[in-house]
Amino acid sequence: MSDVNSRISGIVGDSDVVLFMKGTPLFPQCGFSSRAIAILDHCGVAYDSVDVLQDMEIRQGIKSFSDWPTIPQLYVKGEFVGGSDIMMEMFEAGELQQMMDEKQVAKAEG
Questions:
Q1: Residue 82, beta-bridge partner list
Q2: Which residues contact 93 (CB under 8 A, 6 or more apart)?
Q3: Cα–Cα separations (whole angstroms), residue 95 to 63, 78, 86, 98
Q4: Among residues 52, 62, 46, which one has the least CA distance to residue 107?
Q5: Beta strands 79-82 and 27-28, pairing class
Q6: Each residue of 10-29: pLDDT tens digit?
Q7: What secondary structure letter does DSSP report for 16?
Q8: Which residues pair with 19 in a beta bridge?
Q9: Domain boundaries, the chain
Q10: Which end of the chain is more exposed for a tag (fewer CB within 10 A), N or C?
Q11: What is the pLDDT, as a whole number, of residue 5?
Q12: CB atoms closer than 10 angstroms to residue 69
């Protein structure tokens, strides 16, 4: 496994929920990342994020790691879920919240 793949694998494995995004949760750098953050916040789950704009290796590597061409990308308990469009569809259908509950994802503090 390449160095970048092992780094991504470690990030995905270390967090229940991780979002690879452009920017940060407080300052998203694209509308899709902003929408993904809003969805996760609405679900009330604790999550980590990785700003792909700060690391070109991760930015390119995540696309081949997941075999998904766009960013943001959501992983829950090590499993690739999808990008913001899939997140939105799942959220609107109640499936994203159900997945978080079934996988016993930690709730956000506050």
A1: 74
A2: none
A3: 24, 17, 10, 5
A4: 46
A5: unpaired
A6: 999 999 999 999 999 999 99
A7: S
A8: 49, 74
A9: 3-102
A10: C
A11: 95
A12: 9
Please report, as a single letter, which amino acid is at residue 64: S
In contact, 14 and 78? CB cutoff 8 Å? no
Please tell me the distance from the alpha carbon of residue 100 to that of residue 102, in angstroms, as a whole number: 6
CA distance 11 to 102: 22
SS3 71: coil
Q: Which CATH superfamily is domain 3-102 in?
A: Glutaredoxin (3.40.30.10)
CA angle 92, 70, 10 (to 5 degrees): 95
* Residue in 6, 103, 93 with CA at minimum distance from that of residue 47: 103
DSSP for 38-61 reads HHHHHHTB--EEEEGGG-HHHHHH
The per-residue pLDDT for range 36-74, each reduced to its tens digit, is 999 999 999 999 999 999 999 999 999 999 999 999 999
**Cα distance between residue 20 and residue 1, in whole Å:** 20
The answer to whether 58 and 4 have CB atoms below 8 angstroms apart is yes
